Amino acid sequence: MNVYLAMNYGAWALSAIIFGWLLYDYVKTGKTYKESELLGHVDRDEFEGQEG
Amino acid sequence: MKGDNVVSTAVNEPVVERIKQKHTLAKVLGPAHIWALGVGIVLVGEFMGWNFTIAKGGSMGSLIACWAVGLMYVVLVMCNSEIGCVMPEAGGQYVQAKYILGPLAAFNVGLALIFEYVMLEAADALVIGALMQTLNPAISPIPWIILSVAILTWLNYRGVEATLNINLVITAIAYVTIFILLFSTKFYIPSASLLQTKELMSSLPYGWIGIIAALQFGIWYYLGIEGAVLGAGECRSPGRSLPLGMLSGVVSLIIGATITWYVASGLVHWEQLGASVYPLYDAALATKMPFVIAALFVGTMLSCLASANGCIVDSSRAWQSMSNDHLVPNWFSAIHPVYKTPYRAVLFLVPIALSFAFTGLLDQVIAFSILSALYDYILKAIIMFKFRQMWPLGSVERGYISPWHPLPATILGILVLLIFAGFYLGYGINLLAGTLFYISASVWFEVHRKKYVDYSSFITTALPRPQGY
Predict the structure, then answer these.
(1) B3 has a pLDDT exceeding 80
(2) Complex prediction ipTM
(3) Of B22, B153, B347, the CB nearest to A37
(4) Which of the four CATH numbers 3.30.300.130, 1.20.1740.10, 3.30.420.40, 2.60.120.460 does domain B28-458 have?
């Protein structure tokens, strides 16, 4: 195969891996942390839960 | 959106402190990072785009435009540093507009900043794709455009310190390649010099009006240096880092721009240079030295990467700041709990940059970037006057005081208006379309978005009450 075509496919593949990792981390972060923790707002449930 | 319903709380200090600590950007940047952020974004302008000043104003017109616009950026950085030191939050000019002019101006400045940088990022990616294609026509630019944006997005997602450390290195290498080209010409030995300044340069082929027309492209030498102030919120010591990093950055750029003009004008005929896509690379080709040609290929590539990298840093911080204040949905303001980066803002701007890069319309993309910057600059002059009125010297602690006020802000305003005139001469339709876009966005903000702004939390920095309020 032409080396330049291989470079094109390589660039596509590497881009897919990087965007795949970003998507994976984005979803994992959303599942691991509460929205209030990500946004920096004090979560009333957490506040009340601790107080109780 | 969920995030728009801000929870007003009774105070439970440990919980509030813990969440505040989790939600702050990391304070890791010093003057060298600010220099790299500013110069890194801009340096690509020495490698391409500036040469259209020669097409409009000839060699001498180009040099006058280079220095006139350089003066504009010196005064802009002086104003920016003074206000930026007092308001050390991520968001730069956006935060300044917020504190001094109010929500509508802040929305417009934020939007202009984002489009300035996203368009510049798109232009950088476009050039990277085109450069790769110069290796062989079989190489398609599209996957390289996507790959460059993907890598830089990943770096920005993972953390600002590593991102700007890499920017520091690649910016320095790209800057050095300009000097490699300069010394390869043996300019210091008149008898052996490759520079043919008398034969290749022109004076003012279109007269003084050519200089006005050249000014809009003269911006390309420096466009984006002011964005370094967007890193203020992540500086260890903004009062020291901002003026030191930004002023040394603008001086580096004026030196680099003058050398670029001198070398390229001495190696390539002015008419050919005025139409070139890669003026410095063309100048390197004129030397016929393989090492110099390779160095300038690498330099052009690295300058594009550094520029796009800095653009992602700046645009995401501006978007996150606007989101924090509910000028756009608050959902975007999330900070990554591990990497401490505005990861949703970083990801959100990727498809916008890519979609403009895919158009392939380099001059249109650049024109919108420049126009957005001009709106930002004219507001900056107004902001500086109002800042000194609201907080005169002595009323608030300043890390840096801009000398000779109101001269710098006046020069800034006059030069920006002159560049608007030059923009009208070259891109009148774009000027109209861009203005309509910002007017439409302002109407949308006033009608649909302004009601979400929480005025009790809009201004948070502990500044003294402004004079007259």
Answers:
(1) no
(2) 0.81
(3) B22
(4) 1.20.1740.10
